[in-house]
Amino acid sequence: MILSLLLLALPLVQTDTLDNVVVTGTRVSTDIRHLPMTVTVVDREALTENMRPNILPTLEEQVPGLFVTARSMMGYGVSDGGSGMMTLRGISSNTGGLMMLIDGHPQYQGLFGHSVADMYQTLMAERVEVLRGPSSVLYGSNAMGGVVNIVTRQMHEDGQQTDLSLGAGSYGTVQAEATNRVRKGRFYSVVAMQYGRSDNHRPDMGFYQYGGMAKLGYEFSSHWETRADFDLTHFAASYPGSVSDPILDARQWVNRGTAELAIENHYRKTSGAVSAYYNFGRHKINDGHALGEEPKTYYFRSNDALSGLSLWQSATLFSGNRITAGFDWQHIYGHAWNRSMQTGETTYTAGNDKEDEVAGYIDFRQDIVGWLTLDAGVRIDHHSQTGTECVPQGGLVFRLTDGGALKAMVSKGFRNPSIKEMYLWGPANEELLPERMVTYELSWKHRLRSVPFSYGINVFYINGDNMIETQMVDGKPMNVNTGEVENCGAELEWQWEATKHWRLNSNYSYLHMKNKVIAAPEFKGYLGANYTLGHFSLSGGLQYVTGLYTQVSETEGDVKEHFWLLNATLSYQVCKQTAIWAKGDNLLAQRYEINHGYPMPRATFMGGVRVSL
Q1: Could you give the 3-state DSSP secondary structure of residue 392?
Q2: What letter does residue 10 receive in the DSSP assignment?
Q3: Closest of 61, 498, 110 to residue 278, by C-alpha
Q4: What is residue 58's three-state secondary structure?
């Protein structure tokens, strides 16, 4: 923090360098300086420098206000023993308040309405764009607290590139990846495969995963192209329960996949796309039994799917103008049942339920003068069960210097209730209404010319109602629209290329919550560094977390955690094609928990080799 204050005291000199160009806030490539939203971009280099097979640990370090729960060295899992819950400014992905996107398309579990963390492999990502704040105008339900958009990889120049990576380390952990990218004229392809497994640091906590992705594209002309991609992941996990309440025989087997077909057009004054996408999942789970109890005689089974159609077109009608209009349709399906382990017969079914959603939206952006941009948008969204929702947003951008921008934004987010909340099991309530939330945000982003240094500061206030909670009604538990959200906070981030050898980056976030939320730390800070010299490269980071609730309970009391985490990765380029690497996580050997009752591993180590052909 002291280092940050000293760096911010540098003279505010203008810069000619452009900020990152992003697609998440407007669907068309746009300089961040013209958008009122707060967006963090994590590029391929940052995603891969610490040899992590999943993007989420890196996003947690690089994005202020974002926190991810974990319980082991490898694997997040699902159900009672699962983790991988993301919170952004106190809004949780487990309740569907934070949207995961792959190339701009919604990606979540259709039955329960939340993402599945083990799907988001580093091998698929060219970069990740995180929009902090409601994004429901463009992306609809579940983008209430923000979106995480994974932009998949592509081959931009003619030729072929093959990358191989293999690593092994503590607790029998193994990770392997292979990616082949090809471009020949107007055709390009990306094919990737991955495998990972670990015994993890507690007995009966094994995890393994394998899967892959394929992406094919063809450019009909300089203005039109089509692409198709497919991603499939299988993972299996076991979990022993908390240290105070052990569980036996807990196992889970999960298949998740996505597919997309798109046609895009790119002209000087207009661009757009039409795409069809399909997300699906198959789950088989044994939630286990406590010591002294009888083993379960059935598996919990569920299938789900989310299919959709998206059309949008963006056009510049006159100088400084950009209008984007779009149409979305989604069909969400979910089916759950119990199946006998011995006979395979269905012993209980929770029904075969579905939801449909159709929406139209328009976003208008206009440069009023050279230094002022107005942005306004609205979405009209109709849900087959909850009716019609109007979602507005508006913002102003003041480019007070060539390198600085002051942004003011107010936006509404919403979330339709999931199939589970409306139809499945005891608390289900078919009369539920959408959750609603409004966020007010003021931010300043600046890049200096005299030194390669940039920073951003923002403050926000969130007010939400109609939050779905389970309460006792007439002596029975029922899901009702009764909860409220009132969060406020501040975030700071900066990057500095100190010398040709040193790069530093840091971010901090402070969150005040009227109502306590699990996995949403009051303060999170991160300081990262990268040093290169000849064939050597050293990268690492120090993260501090405090005020982290791992349990909120009126009967058992609240539990808070605070901890420091130091991670580092060293690599050596043996030759042009081959590099070897070694890394250590939690090098301070901290004792801490993120999920209550699941102690995290202390210091762990891995090493491996990376080959590029």
Answers
A1: strand
A2: S
A3: 110
A4: helix
Q: What is the DSSP letter of 220?
A: S
> pLDDT tens digits, residue range 363-392?
999 999 889 999 999 999 999 999 999 999
250: amino acid identity, one letter: A
21 in Cβ contact with 528 (< 8 Å): no
- Kindly state the tokens that stand for 78: 């699902």
The neighbour count for residue 4, using CB atoms within 10 Å, is 18
pLDDT at 350: 79
Element (H, E) at 82: none
Q: Pick from 193, 198, 190, 199: which is nearest to 161 by CA?
A: 190
Predicted local confidence at residue 20, as pLDDT: 67
**Nearest Cα residue to 80 out of 290, 295, 337, 352:** 290
Show the beta-strand stretches assigned E in 220-297: 224-238, 247-248, 251-266, 270-286, 289-290
What are the helix (H) ranges across 255-295? none
pTM attached to this predicted model: 0.93
**Can you tell me the distance from the alpha carbon of 43 to that of 300, in angstroms, rounded to the nearest whole number?**
39
Beta strand 146-152 with 99-102 is parallel
**pLDDT recorded at residue 323:** 94
Measured distance CA(226)–CA(313) in Å, rounded: 16
End-to-end CA distance of the chain: 42
Cβ-Cβ contacts under 8 Å for 315 (sequence gap 6 or more)? 269, 270, 322, 323, 324
Q: Is residue 581 within 8 Å of residue 610, measured between CB atoms?
A: yes
Longest dimension (CA), the chain: 74
Distance CA 270, CA 199 (A): 52
The residues, any chain, with a CB within 8 Å of residue 553's CB and separated by 6 or more, are none
Beta strands in 124-158 (DSSP E): 125-132, 146-152
The rounded distance, in Å, linking the Cα atoms of 587 and 602 is 8
Do the bridges between strand 404-415 and strand 159-169 make them parallel or antiparallel, or are there none, so unpaired?
unpaired
Distance CA 313, CA 317 (A): 12
State both tokens at 353: 């339920």
- Among 123, 159, 155, 308, smallest CA distance to 232 is for 123
pLDDT of residue 11: 35
CA distance 481 to 471: 10
pLDDT digits (tens, 9 = 90+) for 538-589: 999 999 999 999 998 888 889 999 999 999 999 999 999 999 999 999 999 9
- Which candidate, 522, 537, 549, 544, places its Cα nearest to that of 588? 544
- By three-state DSSP, how is residue 422 classified? helix
Nearest alpha carbon to residue 404 among 461, 459, 457, 460: 457
* pLDDT for position 7: 40
Looking at residue 554, what is its pLDDT?
82
Residue 365 sits at the vertex; the CA angle it makes with 363 and 371, to the nearest 5 degrees, is: 160
Exposure b/e, 400-421, CB count within 10 A at least 16 = b: ebbbbbbbebbbbbbbbbbbbb
CA distance 154 to 193: 15
Which residues of the chain carry a pLDDT beneath 70? Answer: 1-20, 351-352
| Residue type for position 485 | V
226 three-class SS:
strand
